[in-house]
Every structure is written in structure tokens, then in C-alpha cells.
Amino acid sequence: MNDFESIAARPSSGRPFPGVSRTASGRAWAYRLDERGEMLASALAQAHGLPDLVARVLAGRGVAIDAVEGFMTPRLRDLLPDPDTLRDMQPAVDRLAQAVHSREPVAIFGDYDVDGACSSALLASFLEACGVPVRIHIPDRITEGYGPNVQAIRALAEDGARLLVSVDCGTASNEPFAEARRLGLDVVVLDHHQAPEALPEVTALVNPNRQDDLSGLGHLCAAGVVFVTLVGLNRALRNAGQAPAEEAFSLMGALDLVALATVADVVPLIGLNRAFVRQGLTVMRQRGRIGLTALLDIAGLETAPQAWHLGFLVGPRINAGGRIGDAALGAKLLMTHDPGEAQRIAGELDQLNRARQAIEQDAVAEAVAQAEAALHHDTQAALLVTSSPEWHPGIVGLAASRLKERFRRPAFAFAVDEAGMATGSGRSIIGADLGRAVRAAVDAGIARKGGGHAMAAGATVSADALGTFAAYITERLATDVADAADNDRLMLDAPLTAAGAQVALMDALDQAGPYGAGCPEPVFALQEHRIVSVREVGSNGHLRARLADGGGATIDAIAFRAAGTDLGNLIQRAVGTPLHVCGTLSRNAWGGRERVEMRLIDAARPG
Q1: At 527, which helix (H) or strand (E)?
Q2: Which of 181, 388, 412, 568 has its CA 20 to 30 A from that of 496?
Q3: Rounded to the nearest 5°, which phi and psi values hold at 122?
Q4: Is the model's pTM score more than 0.85?
Q5: Which residues contact 361 (CB under 8 A, 6 or more apart)?
């Protein structure tokens, strides 16, 4: 295991937080660092001249003394592998180079999420810069479902495509690609989803998670795989004197797309992914991509984008097209060079996102009610499976995510159609590999189709078989979920006061970023801070509060979707009295003045 892999693997083993016995979340609080971790933090601070809090953050993420520089300044030139280390890369590059040489029409089939949109835009932009005619097809979630399908492939062949490139999907698409072969299309797959043992017969299938790939790059999202492929393709074209000019396409300038996909797809921010996100954010802050800039503006972002903005502000708006609108809008926005079109598409995605929020709110309320009823009968249930014929298929993944967050166990939400088929999405917790369990259910004939990642998966199941599906997945995950529950503590990096939450602290913490999956944002505890005021803001139940420390210094805080929850009820009832609270820090530039605020995670009464 290398130093970067140890970040995700580091166990939670810190000291209990003093003076807290009951919390709003029901989780115990503990400092992330145990005695050994405290010693490592001290050594890191001394060896590298780091501020104490930064050293504690690094130590809490398992960064060794000799890995600090690589962690804090990840560089592509140090971390980018030779593309040929991935299985099937050479035939993939050869076939793509052939398409460039002969200017063959290429069809790109992408998934309808952020990773699919970024992967499609990334590959299409490169090929267009090489003079290759390209058509992108993003499937409609409701009428086509996930992944390549026979009808779409026939349409792409009739449109003149000779090469089909499937991005962020296709690893298990045996039947559709058999039809592609029959129609005379060559197929290249660039994917990252978990792979079955029997792969489809294609020209090349590049996927670091296929069982015979030894590259060690399984943490990449699809856009990361596409980027590595383009590095190999660009090298081959350069050797042949056919590489696109820098002004037509810049690989480094495309890292904003890779960063967005990496964060939005919630893959671990370790190794190469850290370099992608760090350098991609630098590109994004230059505001050179018209469509992405328009989306940042319409989201109201007034500070330089950070990794969490991609997951909470940008990603949901791009996803909204694939969930309840035109799935192709995201890729179109990311590729456009027309400012007017960028404003129009960004506005449409923003409106779709608002509509999605309203639809989601009703579905989540029903899903929570179903989950609570199930837990009333079995409080230790390892898996929650909810379903309804009233739910929009585009929001079931969001409902599953809310269930997982609220009940801290794997959860599925299924939309049931008129034919009695249930199409759903699941979200999991660290340590319980949901994607593998779903693939096993497919192999066992319990699910019609499905797959995904360790933390997220999709499945299509007969509605009559949902009970069988739930029992099967529960049996596969029960031990892992029980182990996770035994270690389910809210890990804190350090205590803090309102007076200490300054912009200079954020500047120091940013040195250890980006934060995300596999490298969690630092969580700080404010001990015995008085709740000065609480008010509800927006239409999604967000609560905004002001807290004061013993010296009178104040900090603003927000608790997302907290109204009516145990956390929201606790802080609303505590106005005028002290609470222990914990959360992450962010910058707020409202009114042109930058200051620090806290995103609340949990709270507890002193003692």
C-alpha cells in the first residue's frame, strides 16, 4: 500500500471527545488522531515548518513525513503513468489514431451524469480539434435507460458513424456491442465501473477496474481514463505529425473537466486524482471555459471555486439535465464557444435543478417514512430498500443518498413503472461494496441488470422480486455493515473557537486540499458556543445560525436540510444557550467581504 492509498484505508482510532454523551446524530465524537497520530502531527510540523492545524490534518489522513510534498503539491508530471500501463490502451489508441488519420465519423456514447458529460465533452473536443466529425449521444434516462442500447447504436450507424466510443459506460454491454459489430462499427470502451469476468467483444476496452488490469488506477473516474487515453493518443499523433495545435486543444486546459468529473463522481481524492483536481481547479479559476463559467455565475459563486463547490453547486445542475430534462445539455454546455448559448443552457439547467429539488423533496419524505417503518420492525437492518410507482426515475439516486446519510447504512430507492419493473439506485457506506453485491445479484438472476461502484450502484429488478433482491444484498453486506456500525464515530480534527476561524486559517488548510472522498474535509469542534440566532433560509429546509464564543467573537453557520431533523430541532431550541457543535469550514464572500462560516454536521448539549 502506498502513502496515498493509506489515506482512504486509515482506521478511525482517536480519543473520545470529552463532555459529549448524546449528540443530535446519535454518533459518538472522537478526535481523529490517537497518541501515535499526535506524535506524527508534531513531527510533520517540525520537519516541514507547517502550522499545527495543517500538520494535524495531514496526520489524520495518514500522510507520512516523506510524502508531504507530493501530497500538498501533487503534480501530473510526477503522478501521470505511461498510458500503456492500462490494459487494452494500445489498441484503443491505435483505433482512435486511425479515425484521426482518415477523418472517420466517430460516435461517442456517454452516460447521463456529470462524469459522462465531462468524458464526452473531453473526447469530442480533442477529436474535433483533429478535424474528426463527432456526434455525442447521451441516452434518455427514462426511454433508454443506462448504457449503450441497440436502438441508439442502429441510429448512430445510420448516421454514418464507423467508430463507436463508449465513455463512462459499456463494460457489460454485450448485446448492444454485438449489434454494433453486426452493423460494421468498431467499438472502443473507456470506462471505470466494476467489470464482470466475461467482457464484451470489442476492439478495445480500457477500464482500470477490469479484473485483468494491473495498472493500479482503479480510483480514476471515466474522465480520468479518457484523459490518460488522450495523453497516449496525443503522443501517437505527435509522432505522426498529426497532433492538434495547442491553441485548438490543450490537454492541460482540459483538466477543469477532469476535476469536475472526479469530484462529482465521488471517486477517492488520492494519487493522480489529487493532481487532476488541484490543477483542474487552477484552470477553472481562469474562467476560460465559457459554459462552465456561466454555470458558476448562475449558481451565485462569488469566490474562487473549491472542490466542494463542484460537488454541491455545479454537479447537481449538470446532473439535472440527465435526471428530469435533456440529458445532452451538460455536454453541450461544456463544449460551447458561444456565450449566448452558454447563458441559455446554464439557465435551463438551473431551472431544471430547481424543479428537481421540488420533486426530490416529496420523494425523500416518502422514502424516509418507508425506511422508518422498516427500521421499526428491524432496528439493525443492514440495508434499506424503498420503492414507489410515483417517483421520477431521475431522482431515485438522490433519495437513496438522503437515506444513506440519515440512517447511516446502504440504501436503495426504486421507481416502479407501469410494466412492474423497478429501476433504482443505491448508495453505500465505506466498507460495504454495493457495486459488487449488485453485480452478484445480476449473475444470480435476481436483478435484470445492474452494476456500479463500491459506494453507488444501479439496478433493474422486477417489482415482485424486490424482497428477494433486498434479502440477497443484505446477506452479502450484513457483516461489512455491522463492522462499519461498530466503528461509526464522527471524527474531529481539532477544537476551534469563533475567534480562531479566520481567513488565514482557511488559506493554511487549503494547502492540504483538495478534500473529498478518501480525503475528508477537516471537521472542527466549537465547544460551548452560545447559539445567538437561528433562522430558516431557502426552500429546502436549510438553517442559518450565528454562534458566539466566550469572548464574544461570532461565526455564522449553516445546517443544510436540517429543518425538522434532530440537529435542526436541537439548535433551534438552544437559542440563547451554549452547545457543542462540529462541522467543516468554508469561505463566504457575500457583500464583497470574505469571511469564514461553518457547515454544521452535528451538535450536542454540554455534559
Answers
A1: strand 524-537
A2: 568
A3: -65, -50
A4: yes
A5: 540
- What local confidence, expressed as pLDDT, does residue 10 receive? 44
Give 144-175 pLDDT, tens digit per residue: 988 999 999 999 999 999 999 999 999 999 99
Amino acid code (one letter) for 282: T
Query: How far, in Å, CA of 543 to CA of 26, rounded?
Result: 20
451 grid coordinates:
452494476
- Per DSSP, the chain holds a count of helices (H) and strands (E) of 22, 18
End-to-end CA distance of the chain: 41
Residue of 598, 586, 584, 583 whose CA lies nearest to 23: 583
Q: What is the pLDDT of residues 447-503, one digit of tens each?
A: 998 988 888 999 999 999 999 999 999 999 999 999 998 888 999 999 999 999 999
DSSP 293-356: HHHHHHTT--S---HHHIIIIIHHHHHHHHHHS-TTHHHHHHH---HHHHHHHHHHHHHHHHHH
C-alpha cell at 601: 454536521
Residue 308 makes CB contacts below 8 A (sequence gap 6+) with 263, 515, 516, 521, 586
Tens of pLDDT, residues 54-101: 999 999 999 999 999 999 999 999 999 999 999 999 999 999 999 999
- As a whole number of angstroms, the distance between CA 436 and CA 167 comes to 20
Answer whether 139's CB lies under 8 Å from 147's CB: yes
Q: How far is CA 390 from CA 323, 348, 402, 470, 521, in A?
A: 15, 25, 18, 20, 36
pLDDT value at 399 more than 50: yes
